[in-house]
Amino acid sequence: MVVFPGSNCDHDVYHVLKHVLGQEAFFLWHDEESLKGAELVVLPGGFAYGDYLRAGAMAALSPVMAAVQRHAEAGGFVLGICNGFQVLLESHLLPGAMRRNQNLRFLCQDVHLRVERNDLPFTRDLAVGQVLRMPIAHAEGNYEDSAEKLDALEAAGQVVFRYVRPDGSPAGNNPEWNPNGAARAIAGIANPRGNVLGLMPHPERCAEEILGNTDGLKLFESVVQLGAKAVAAGGYGGRR
Amino acid sequence: MTVLQEPAVSAELARSQGMTEEEYERLRQILGREPSYTELGITSALWSEHCSYKSSKIYLKEFPTEGPHVLQGPGENAGVVDVGHGWVAVFKMESHNHPSFIEPYQGSMTGVGGILRDVFTMGARPIACMDSLRFGDIDAPRMRFLIDGVVRGIGDYGNCVGIPTVGGETGFHPSYNGNILVNAFALGVARRDRIFNARASGVGNPILYAGSRTGRDGIHGATMASESFEAESEAKRPTVQVGDPFTEKILLEACLDAMRTGAIVAIQDMGAAGLTSSTFEMAGRGGMGMRLDLDQVPLREAGLTPYEMMLSESQERMVLVAKRGREEEVAKVFRRWGLEVAPLGEVTATGRAVLVWHGETVADMPILPLTQEAPVYRRPAEPPADLAERQRSPEVPAVADPLGDLARLLATPELASKRWIWRQYDHTVRTNTVLGPGGDAAVLLLKGTPAGLAMTSDVNPVYCYLDPRRGGAQAVAEAVRNLACVGAEPVGLTDCLNFGNPERPEILWQFREAIRGMSEACRVLGAPVISGNVSFYNETEGRSIHPTPTVGMVGVIPDLAHLPEAHFLAAADRIVLLGSAGGGGEFGGSAYLRLLHGVEQGLPPAVDLNAEARLAALLRQLVAQGLLHTAHDLSEGGLGVALAEACFGRLLGAEVELPLSSLADLFSETQARAIVAARPATLDRLLQAAAAAGVPALEIGTVGGADLVLRAGGDTWRTPVADLHEIWSTALPKALGL
Q1: Is-catalytic flag, B69?
Q2: CB burial class (10 A; 0-12, 13-18, 19+) of residue B554?
């Protein structure tokens, strides 16, 4: 977990990885230049550097992000959640940009997501077309890019999660189901190689039975199991 | 070198800063000379109603403040209760009414910021906020602007710091047209042995300043908050502070880290009256003196005078006393988080505050006579002249169309869904939220234990207006009932006592009576007062708000395994009404009379504290035994509104045989009642438990279908739950014009 000044979901992700999944989890300070052997880097939600200038803009320039960039280029796993997704966009590890939610207000509520791909490290335990329920909590989750680039993104299969109605049918621009107004109802995207994923909803907030929803846990389980297998096989990403 | 040029001090200048002639004379006696301008400013802030509680102190003593769980009662930055498993909960509620009326966004932001600092200054990590808001008529001047600004401010602050806003309440009444209420509550948790206090000790220990720089914002905010509004209050905008939640977040992390060094003796945030109250209170509590070098105060702009430095209410600042020789360890932590630290002075044994600036002593005053021994007033208290008229029994118009009246009630902003508000607050961050906003009480995990923390905030200002004693008792009783609906036993409460001008006998009478009512209820229901705040002078041009003694109560649920919800969960569940079955015909101050018939009159419903205690104990027992799917208390709007709300959660219908003598009783607000729903197989056990507990229990219907169906005396009324839900869920945004 990378900790920027202003990150506020770092402990939540730590809790899921460490206490729910029993992984070796640790925090990386924003001015670190090395990832200290991390296999999975999580950029957590929050308001890095107060979101001043633009959400994620200043965090993208912090020393640790250079290390994250190298990690991603080497095929290591990177997961950006909410503000972390915004940081990935500002760092150009993922394409596109965020605008303010269409009603110009912060929104905290459950959304429904359709899984568009299950051949990624993060979605291996999910089924294509499966509908997940997850909370969102953000003011800037209105994904945007030019029509050509959105076409290219879709064509390359980089759209991983899309806002849908509870029955899985398209949400379109209906504010009830695509509350922030994201283009093509995009909630989460990956890089072409599939090792970097960014999404606006918070899987770490729905990963325990006691909180009434475990739809987010599978995402972490997928990548953790893959990491474990890869380590056993002596490959995939990070330096040990 | 700058020469300090200050206005000449006189009784007249003192009066312009809110001090009476007697208070000014008293200050002269304490000093044995004329005060300097800086000394006058310091004293006027310390002796303001907001800081000194001079009109309320003698009444606040009536509150029970001790209990089996209480570790720290009123007097510190926040109260502390033991919640088991080695954990303590630290919580408090505070008003930010005046600033929020002048500048709603910054006013509510800094309200949240201040209450969070009160909690983490005690060494606790904040894990939840609630907000109790009172607005005027939505159509009153500026009201939509105020609502929008307050909601955005609360959201932007709490969301950024990353503390979930898990509950609260919002009410609308014309008495708040000229003076809205913003009461912010925060709760933190800490290990039992890791609590810090704000008591300076150790002669020679360094006093440090940490956090944001000091600017000219909020100067004399505490004095402003101790005056009524007049037409020109707009001009007081510069007395409102400006919040920066990002700095608060790093200050929070830095303080908690710094506390782990073991090098901190005492710590306090700079809240109302900024550097003045934080340093004087810290030294006063410890019976110490202090020497402050004001040239060291980090400034946002050059040229602030000592007067301005001492009275600025710039936000996100802390004062610490460190162990001598270990100040660098503390400073390092703050610097790592990118925060400024400055050596401000040291603790002395003199009992005096000596302030030096540019080599000149600008203040030299004894501390205790200004803090602990500040003026105390026993002001005259008289009931209002029209009390008998207010309490005259109202005529209750008959109900012909119960579902139509129910729909009309649900369409009022008062009773409509508040989701539009709480959807703008992050209520799931920190992954502790088991039950968030919208139910009877919020429930949070106490991670690593089977237990949960429950919290609620309650008050009915109309009841308090009609009978402040009953209203005060009712607020406490309702909070206990709300906690009981999730199986929680109260461990303590915090209050925010919002009233008009205490120099008017009628207002002081309201205050005294409300405290008496609350105290009686606290004693019987086992909920000691551990912290709180008084906000007087909530008046505009002589018109007072309704008395609003807001209660924030916290309880512990021993085991979260069988938590019920506030709405119906499963078809075929049996619905049972607990408490007086007949409805009781109590309409004084009811939502039915006020919102549908424009009548605000009569004695509010009677409060039978023993019946409340029996009901609460029964609910806790039923929850612990896992016998309930649903538990929801009856409050504003009575049985009718409670049934509708219970249907809304999962859009599940219900068929109910109304046990009423008249249809209007559907909306009677008789107290000590709740509806519960349980599987048919456990109904008998439920009814037996109620009988054994001495709580009347009557099976009134069954959950199921898509309609709410009411039957009484051979008549049947039926409406789709979805239709009622549409009315209820869209009413507030519609009223706001969104």
Answers
A1: no
A2: buried
Is the Cβ pair A202, B428 closer than 8 Å? yes
In this prediction the pTM is 0.95
Q: Which residues of A173-189 are buried (b: 16+ CB within 10 A; e: fewer)?
A: eeeebbbbbbbbbbbbb
Q: Where are the alpha helices (DSSP H) in A40-132?
A: 63-73, 83-90
Q: Is A116 a known active-site residue?
A: no
Give the tokens for residue A3. 């900790």
> Which of A52, A106, A205 shows the shortest C-beta gap to B428?
A205
pLDDT tens profile B69-115: 999 999 899 999 999 999 999 999 999 999 999 999 999 999 999 99
Which helix H or strand E contains B575, and what residues bound it?
A: strand B574-578
Provide the angle, in degrees to the nearest 10, between the axes of the packed helices B402-410 and B721-735: 30
Contact B431 A51 (CB under 8 A): no
**Mean pLDDT value across residues A58-70:** 96
Smallest CA–CA separation between A102 and chain B, in Å?
13
The token duo for B46 is 């310390």
How far is it, in rounded angstroms, from Cα A195 to Cα B13?
69
B370 in Cβ contact with B351 (< 8 Å): no
Check A30, A82, A206, A221 and give the catalytic one.
A82
The model's confidence at residue A29, banded by pLDDT at 50, 70 and 90, is very high
Residue spans of alpha helices (H) in B609-719: 609-624, 638-648, 683-693
Please name the residue that has the structure tokens 């695509």: A178
Which positions in chain B touch A84 (Cβ < 8 Å)?
Answer: none
Selected residue of A32, A108, A140, A200 to mutate for chain B interface (largest B Cβ count, 10 A): A108
What confidence tens digit (pLDDT) does each residue in B262-272 have?
999 999 999 88
- Cβ atoms within 10 Å of B300's Cβ, excluding its own: 13
Strands (E) across chain A are located at 2-3, 28-29, 40-43, 77-81, 97-99, 107-115, 131-138, 142-144, 159-164, 186-190, 196-199
Q: Which residue has the tokens 């109605």?
A: A165
